[in-house]
């Protein structure tokens, strides 16, 4: 498969023909904006990794579950809307052996799932979750494979080929710098599936030390109960915290 250009540097790149909405007032340095549409993930962390690896022209081994190295208490309170006192605390999760770190909601426990390096689920609603998959590859960096937009297009093409997918649409695509100048791609898309209904998915990916690191955050986002700005802010903090160690 031919490589595609050099990735764009700078803030997230919107798709042509799609107007961005202004970020919500309570968002902290958001990179993605809301949409009336929605996406899935108990299986999503493993499934999306498989989709992306299918697009990669190089072979990779199946991921394996690895133990936690440590979880350091950290960061972030988000005030509830309407003057409410609701708070959602985040803590730092670090896997030293696999070489990645991120923030995750303290109240979302880690669960075991074959093929997932780490998976955290909202208690009582496992379809809202955060997953990480790590796979060996022969790339030195993700830009060697293609631009953020190219990766997003390949991912969505693979999603649409699944029988369970009713519709899938990219909302925004971007790139940021991680530790030591590492290139991290970020993609937001909405998915309507017969397995889980309408959901919003945030994905971050990078390649380091000949490994593909893929983060997937899935949350319900139906017209009846759309993703609220408070939860969105927290999910974006998780998205932007994903990095190598």
Overall description:
It contains 3 helices and 11 strands. Helix 1 packs across helix 2. Strand 7 (165-177) and strand 8 (183-193) form a beta hairpin. Strands 1-7-8-9-10-6-5 form a 7-stranded antiparallel beta sheet, sandwiched between helices. The protein has a 4-stranded antiparallel beta sheet with strand order 2-3-4-11. Helix content is 16%, strand content 34%. It is globular and about 45 Å long. With 245 residues, it is of the alpha+beta class. Mean pLDDT is 75; it is low at 1-42 and 55-86. The chain has a domain at 105-244: Mog1/PsbP, alpha/beta/alpha sandwich (Protein Transport Mog1p, Chain A), CATH 3.40.1000.10. The protein has helices spanning 44-55, 148-160, 229-241; strands at 13-14, 70-73, 90-95, 100-105, 118-122, 125-136, 165-177, 183-193, 197-208, 211-220, 243-244. InterPro entries: Mog1/PsbP_a/b/a-sand (IPR016123), PsbP_C (IPR002683). Residues 1-36 are annotated as: Disordered. This is PsbP C-terminal domain-containing protein.
The N- to C-terminal Cα distance equals 30 Å
* Overall 3D shape: globular
Number of helices: 3
Number of strands: 11
CATH fold-level topology of the domain at 105-244: Protein Transport Mog1p, Chain A
Low-confidence stretches: 1-42, 55-86
Mean pLDDT rating: 75
Can you tell me the CATH class of the domain at 105-244?
Alpha Beta
